[in-house]
Amino acid sequence: MGKIIFLPQAVVTKTAAGEVIENPASVVKELVENSLDAGATSIKIALSEGGKKKIVVADNGCGMCKEDLLICHKEHTSGKISTEEDLGRISSLGFRGEALNSISCVSDFSIKSFSSQEDDSQGGDSQSGWKIPVLYGKAGEIEPIGMPQGTVVEVQNLFANFPARLEFLKTSQYEFQKIYYLVLLFVLANPNVSFVILHNEKPVLEAPVHYNLEKRLELAFGHSDFFLPLEFTAGHISVGGYLSMPQKSSNSFADLYFYINNRPVKWLKGLQQIKKAYGTLLEKHQFPKGALFLKVPFEMVDVNVHPRKEEVRFKNEALVLEILEKAVLDLLA
Ligand code: ADP
Ligand code: MG
Question: How close is the Cα of 332 to the center of ligand 2, in Å?
């Protein structure tokens, strides 16, 4: 008898969820991306025990109507792309339509939302949104709830139904640090959005909307005195941001925040190219600090290669690397 079986749906769902959602930080990443995609100008993140016990992300974005709220947590649902062609020109942060589904399958989840634009209830209460709970993948009843424009997602007891993943969560402090670093990446890239993080009810980060990139660098590095502003354009490709003076280097790449089309990415080759441009100004074990924003036409870059969209692939990587090096050489000259 053959030994291959079709896996039960419950197993498929859980393992798929486990691929997207690894830890509290990956929950926060997906939720903040959704808030940014929704055009929010204010994002509040409240955490308990490093997010292991509870994560709340509240935004003032476009919100959702009842109809959308009913399906947003289901598999493969997205309001961001609709055709295969769309995949070639993605500008939103999310697009796989699986984050809310994955999170709601492995937590005590709820989402509430109010969209004043979409409020089609005639003569109804214009302050009324909707809330739907989803307990480890099982949706409850949707109910009306009074709230301002925007969306609030609550995630409690992550992985309580998934011991294999729960076991691998680290201490609250460790998980919190991971989230803090991740949110900093968004804070630097979105100067027109205010961010607040509360941990165990104490405010631990506040970046109001009037904080520009320089002010936000201060939040990340404690100061912004040793950064040089960079601005470089070559054809349709541009590089902007701040890099540290050579004498103020770091001992790893961890202090160099790198973005492609405003998306934080792990692109080691790019980082190495930046370091290379510093040449003998930096010792072998010294690395630049800063935040660098590379902008390339959407069709030149594929962000679809990694399940958490952390990696990228270029159509003409050599050209991009060359421009990056030129930009840094130009700055240091
Ligand atoms: P994706 O972001 O890949 O489309 P998600 O599962 O993260 O998939 O979200 C599903 C859909 O729910 C989104 O496409 C969007 O239409 C809606 N949505 C999720 N979060 C928000 C939010 N904070 N504000 C408004 N709409 C949201
Ligand atoms: Mg998303």
Answer: 38
User: What is the per-residue pLDDT for 126?
Assistant: 56
At residue 274, the pLDDT reads 97
Q: Is residue 77 within 6 Å of ligand 1 at its C-beta?
A: yes
Please report, as a single letter, which amino acid is at residue 168.
F
The string of pLDDT tens digits covering residues 98-148 is 899 999 999 999 999 999 876 555 444 556 899 999 999 999 999 999 999
**pLDDT in the model for residue 310:** 66
Please choose, from the candidates 262, 230, 260, the residue with its C-alpha nearest in 3D space to the C-alpha of residue 245.
230
Whether residue 38 has its Cβ less than 6 Å from ligand 1: yes
Is there an atom of ligand 1 within 6 Å of 78 CB? yes
Does residue 100 line the site of ligand 1, with CB under 6 A? yes
Q: How far is the CA of 123 from the centre of ligand 1 (A)?
A: 27
The one-letter amino acid code at 329 reads: L
Low-confidence residues of the chain, pLDDT below 50? Answer: 122-124
